[in-house]
Amino acid sequence: MVFGNMGDTSGTGVAFSRNPSTGEKGLYGEFLMNAQGEDVVAGIRTPQTIDQLEKTQPDVYAQFVSIVDKLEKHYRDMQDMEFTIEEGKLFMLQTRNGKRTAAAALKIACDLIDEGMISEKEAVSMIDPKQLDALLHPQFDAKKLKAATPIGQGLAASPGAACGKVVFTADDATEWATQKGEKVILVRLETSPEDIEGMHYSEGILTVRGGMTSHAAVVARGMGTCCVSGCSEIVMNEEAKTFTLAGKVFKEGDVISIDGSTGKIYGEAIPTVEATVTGYFGRIMELADKFRALQVRTNADNPTDAKQARLYGAEGIGLCRTEHMFFNPDRIAAMREMIVSKTAAQREKALAKLLPMQQGDFEELYEALEGNPVTIRFLDPPLHEFVPTDEGDIVALAKEMDMDVADLKAVISSLHEFNPMMGHRGCRLAVTYPEIAKMQTQAVIQAALAVSARHPEWNIVPEIMIPLVGEIKELAFVKNVVTETADKCIANSGKCIADSGKALTYKVGTMIEIPRAALTADEIAKEAEFFSFGTNDLTQMTFGFSRDDAGKFLDSYYDNKIYESDPFARLDVTGVGKLVEMASTLGKQTRPDIKLGICGEHGGDPSTIEFCHKIGLTYVSCSPFRVPIARLAAAQANIKNPRN
Ligand code: PEP
Ligand code: MG
Asked: Is 622 a catalytic residue?
């Protein structure tokens, strides 16, 4: 036992060997003279900063500096230390590797390389990939933030900062953003699935109710959109489109700022700055790329997300969910027309309207990817997701299609399914309506031809992915539609290819997201040139519980220690992983050069990435904001278990 309360030459303190917020080298900490540890913790007296020790006790300070240097060199990392001085004699009580912010972690890792203390591989391995998330979203301009005063506090539900005009409905968010070009913050009591489009167009989301797993929080995190949830101080008047906070009434169009990393709300405009992967961050990412074996792609279905992902280092698109392109207000009408068509001729007429739009979408994606691979997944969800539920929309559609309203309502109700996730979706849509696959193939191939003609320097090889396959014959059936259409398209446009001196080639592959596909992967690989593991559905179908409803009971499973974590976020290596590994092995037996990827939500999870590396996948694909996390996790996996 040593005593820091033995008079004015005694004291106690805590110090870091580098600044834990910025990573700046140099002692950072505080101490109290004539005090014990609990006095520092109690906060009754104000401690002095560590540099003051140099003035009061220069010898002790010099000794402390030399010990810190020795400890850092020994542990080869930034140290968090506790010390006591008893009558002028220094005692070190404890040292451990210090906790630090993401920014500090990157700077410290780079500095330790430059100081010759650690190798590049050690630097890459010492950073927690998940920590990077905080650096990947827009932040407030630091100077402007200092001058601002928060007026409210909610939960820090989804990181990043946002500034924009207040809107109160998802429809207003969409309209203000798309038609007036405004930046908006969607303020709601709580959000629901109908709000998704509006949420997508919002800079940030603020809710009065709901916790960290509320709809708003979960969806915003998935979108990479800033969100503050559960700010119960807000008094909402949805009808009048106003809310009151800190005694001030905010109307539609008033500017507010919210910080999803701290939960703070500001009643004023604070400019934001975009995240960039530069400086120390950029250097660590470059090193990660040097050491990783797995490729990293992104899940993106619009040019904005695709470009963002490219900036973050994505090497291609691993999943373009084409259905997202049809929810756009200017497409949905043609899509609905196609769905309620009674004859193939009617359907083809509607599809002809969608073709140029879809081709345009794909051209934009190919442009954004600059010759890097793009995997386009054909229409997947149950069709009822697209049909109108609003009476006005139903009447308008009936008119457009020259149909009786009652007749249309009957068609709509015939689309009802008891279990839509296991119903008429995925490749089953292309089996029943091959003309959908035909249109999508035409759009993909024509887009690739057009962009190849504009950019002969890019080698565009379209990758067409058929979803929800469980039987080789259904894949063969759809593939046949695809190849017949694609080959015809290529032959017809031969001139355009010949101009660039290249013949367009394409690949057809499948998602492995049904256990039967995994079990028969050796057969499936006879038709599929690549597999992409759709682990969202594969998890759903393997566990036998719904990906949309499992949240209702999973908490009890964690409380009762049945599951440790959400199997939809972190791959269940024991069960689902076994299927993934088995399918990879079987696929390679049939087709040794088969390309293997993962595009479920798990593709951005570091522990899943380690597993994907181990079993020899070619790439992981994740949302744009997780690309740097995936790059780092892939490098760490290869450093731990080098791939030959
Ligand atoms: C999946 O099932 O993992 C997948 C990526 O497809 P979706 O989430 O679109 O069903
Ligand atoms: Mg799926």
From this structure: no
